[in-house]
Amino acid sequence: MPLPIFLVIILAIKVITLGKGSSIGISAYIIPNAEDLKSFINIFLDPKVWSAAISQIFFTLTLGFGTMIAYGSYNDTKQELVKSTYWTAFLNSAISIIAGFAVFSTIGFMSYNLAVEKNVPYKMVVQYQKANNLQVISELDEEEAKNKTYTYEELKTKGINISKKEVARYNLDNSKLSGLGLAFVVYPKAIAMFKPKWVAAVFGMLFFIMLFTLGIDSAFSLVEAISTVIADELHRKSQIVNRSFIALLVCIIAFLFGIIFTTRGGLYILDIVDHYINGYGLVIVGLMQAIVAGWLYKTTKLKDYINSTTNFKVGFWWIFSIKFIAPFFLSLLLIQQLIIDIKTPYGDYPVLIQLIIIGVILIIPIFTSIFISTYLKMQKE
Length: 381
Prior knowledge:
Blueprint: H1 2-16, H2 20-30, H3 37-44, H4 47-60, H5 67-72, H6 82-117, E1 120-121, H7 122-131, H8 142-147, E2 149-150, H9 152-157, H10 164-173, H11 180-192, H12 197-236, H13 243-258, H14 266-296, H15 299-308, H16 316-343, H17 351-380
Antiparallel strand pairs: 1-2
Helix pairs in contact: 1-6, 2-6, 2-10, 4-14, 4-16, 6-10, 6-11, 11-12, 12-13, 14-16, 14-17
């Protein structure tokens, strides 16, 4: 794993030193866009912010996937748990923060160049007028407003002094680069800025080799999470376990379900599935795990076992967090996110399409469970 960390750190150092644009990106990254204390509190209490944060941490730590549990089953019973858990969480967050500097510096640089090369969009002029109690530019209908722009000189003659930095910040705030956009737009743009060109070429090759290997590594962990459960269940029932066959079967089923993402509309389907799996699926699994560990299992017994493996003890606060804090906040976030998606369908996709995809997401685990149960019964017979 040193290569990804090394590349991200080098990228961050490079793009932070790009100049005007990068400073705009860093400012957007570390300073909340709040005019006063009230607006800052509103940002802090925004459920969308917390939903995105929890989805990010669940995804990067693979919480709710079953991967941690599957890998943990291979540990020795006396394996140190607390310190390794803290180190994993800390290093994961540290790398994410460093990657954030690389991403926002690059987007800031791109936004500033866009502000220099192109004119000021109409919607930004409208925002500026409202903020400064001006009414110089007349309102346009939605269709006209899409592509309407003004030159800086044209706006100055009307008494509107918008700087290139302000336009760059507007472009940054309205850029919707995430997921594939980060991997195949932002990072390649940052790599292309390396001098001389051969350095950029070598660095680009290393970066995409890294993406490829990380993708395979993630696939290993996801397959392991499913195949380990089946193999352990068969072993528990004294059945012959062929781990290679089980892994192959899981891969074939996953491949068949994944074919739809290779179609022309695959990226859109992937976007919707990603939103609901990360925003709902993982959170629900995390909530269920907290309820099971906190209320259906002897939490004190679990705490005593954890403390027996380490000299860094967990106490009452851990039990209280598992029983009350985690379930309360995860439930609250889940309800708020559901209300938001009901009021405003995600990504402006048709509601019917989203409902169909959600239905498929719910059906797949049911049929998978039936298949696994049937397979285990057949093995037993």
